[in-house]
Every structure is written in C-alpha cells, then in structure tokens.
Design a protein that fits this description.
- Helices cover about 40% and strands about 25% of the residues.
- The chain is α+β, with helices and mostly antiparallel strands.
- Strand 9 and strand 10 form a beta hairpin.
- It is rod-shaped.
Length: about 190
C-alpha cells in the first residue's frame, strides 16, 4: 500500500493529545469541549475527529469523514497545480559578428517565444580571441533588447560570465495568459 503524506499531517481520533479542543464545521457552532466529549460526538455521528490546526489554543478539530476530507484536500491541490503556469526559458545564441540575416532569423524566433509566454535567454559566445570584441557583444544585445521592447522587457544589464555575455528577457503580461490558454486548448483536444 502506498504511504500517503497527507494522512500523516493530521491527527485523527485517538492520536489527538489535548485536554480540550475547539470543534468547528458544518452544523456546529464553534465551541470548546473536552477531548472525550468531542470523540463521543464524532463516534455518535459515525465520523472522525480530525485536528486541523494543532498550533491554536485550544487546538481546532473538525468532525468529518477522514477519507473524504483527504480526497477533497488532494482535489484542491491538483486544481491549484493545474492552474500554475510553467514558464520555460528559451536560449538564443549569437556570435560577436552575427550577420544581419542570422540576427533577424533569431529575432523572429525570440518574438515567437515571448508571444507564447516563455522567457528568452540571449547570449553572445566569445570564441578564442573574439573576447576582445566585448563592445560588439554589448551592442548586439542592446539592439536585440531594443527590437524586442514591445514583446518583453530586459530583466538585467548584460553580464559577462566567462566567455558568455548574457541577458534575460521576460514576456509582457499578455504572454503568460496566452500560454495558459494554449495549455487549456491542448487538454480539451
């Protein structure tokens, strides 16, 4: 049987070690009762006493069917996970003397990435003695950022790390929404 970490997070029935507890839930006025009375109430209803807030004084418990309670928690977690948008980072590599045709080709790809909600990591790779042309790399990345202004914004100034000069461009707000819509459309198909 698979071990479930959600069930380990909650104390149920006899696992609860408190003198008195606050009972909340459907059909109950929040009230403080002794643990023995709370267990008796849960037993009379053929349900479980579940501690949902152990740090409160007195601890807060709910009378529910524990397996149903766990099912609803898992369902909420799954829905929250489905609503998250994962942002990918796409890399675009330049050389210090990148030609205009190659530059435009890579610019077009970067626009597509930003429209779909992905971040773009653009870098100039310096090979051998080409490290002497750092200014060309900076100018190329500045031009790249300027050309992509309407699709995204630069997160930081160009950074030289070893033989790479790197910038990150994040999409404007509309891109992430488009990506989430695309994910929803793929699920429906």
């Amino acid at each position: 049987m698979k071990k479930d970490n959600l069930s380990d997070q909650y104390q149920v029935n006899e696992q609860i070690r408190a003198r008195e507890v606050r009972i909340v839930g459907e059909g109950f006025e929040p009230k403080v009762v002794s643990l023995r009375d709370a267990l008796k109430m849960a037993d009379d209803m053929e349900l479980d006493l579940v501690m949902i807030s152990p740090n409160a004084v007195p601890p807060v418990c709910r009378i529910v069917d524990f397996s149903k309670f766990l099912y609803q928690l898992k369902k909420k977690q799954k829905e929250a996970k489905a609503k998250q948008v994962k942002i990918d980072v796409k890399e675009i590599r330049f050389g210090p003397q990148t030609d205009d045709h190659d530059y435009n080709f890579k610019l077009k790809h970067a626009m597509e990435f930003l429209k779909s909600g992905d971040k773009v990591k653009a870098y100039v790779f310096f090979r051998g003695r080409s490290i002497l042309f750092k200014e060309q790399g900076e100018n190329l990345l500045a031009r790249f950022t300027k050309d992509l202004e309407e699709y995204g914004k630069q997160e930081q100034a160009p950074i030289l790390e070893g033989k790479r000069m790197t910038i990150f461009i994040s999409p404007k707000k509309g891109g992430a929404a488009k990506k989430q819509d695309a994910v929803q459309e793929n699920k429906e198909e």
